[in-house]
Each structure stands twice: as C-alpha cells, then as structure tokens.
Amino acid sequence: xRNTILLLLTSLLVTLAACKQFSAPGKIEVIQSxxxxxxxxxxxxxxxxxxxxxxxxxxAEDGTLNGNASCNRFFGKYSYTEETLIIEPLGTTKMAxxxxxxxxxxxxxxxxxxxxxATLENEILILRDAAGQQIIRAARDESETE
Length: 146
Known about the structure:
Blueprint: H1 2-21, H2 27-34, E1 37-44, E2 47-48, E3 56-59, E4 64-68, E5 73-80, E6 85-87, E7 91-92, H3 99-111, E8 117-121, E9 124-128, E10 134-140
Antiparallel strand pairs: 1-2, 1-3, 1-10, 3-4, 4-5, 5-6, 5-7, 8-9, 9-10
C-alpha cells in the first residue's frame, strides 16, 4: 500500500512538473503578441453593435491607438503592465451622425477608457474593466493592412 501511494505521488509530481513546461504565456506576452492590430468592435458591454458598424480599434506596437468610435475618430495612447491595461485619455473628432451611431459611440467612449484587462479568448479580444466586467468584445480585422 505504501509503495502504491509513493508511486502515485511520484507520478503526480512528474505530471505537474511536465505541465509547467507547457504552461500558457504570461499576460504581458499575450498582450505583446496579440493586442497590436486592428480590431472590429462586436459588443460594447453586453450589447452587440449596430449592423455594419464602423467601430474599430487600432492598437499600434508603439503604444499609440486610434480608431472609429462609431461616428467619430479617436486617438490616444495605451500601455500595460503584467496585470493592467492602461488607456490614456482619448482625443476625438466632433462630427454628428445618425442617432443610433451617436448612442453607440457614447457607450463606446464611456466604456473603452475604463479597460483594465485584455484577454484573447478563441481569437476574440475581450477588454474588461477593473471589476472584471466585459466592456468591449472585438474580432481581428483581417481585411485591413496595418
């Protein structure tokens, strides 16, 4: 019995040691490798964007960002630490659009600066606030070149 337990514990330790070699990259590596690029916004909070919405986010490798908030263009800077995504205050243009896009843009501009976490889930970028609530869900825009 003692040998069986010892064998099981040894097997468990070997298995755990092997798992460590194949662990997922840290958050910062994920952000560095996946965040840069153009992302098409699909959801703001728990609401889908309007059909054919122009909402896009472009995270550049140099820490700048820009895009379309639904009607107006925005621009700014971002950075990240191991645990936190930081979106600096954004600048925007000031055009008027149809009410549905203006309402969506207001939600986007209220939510996006609160992003504190970025994760990639099944090739979908999920931005969450400090409380862990999803604020933006976006898919990589494969149609545009950077």
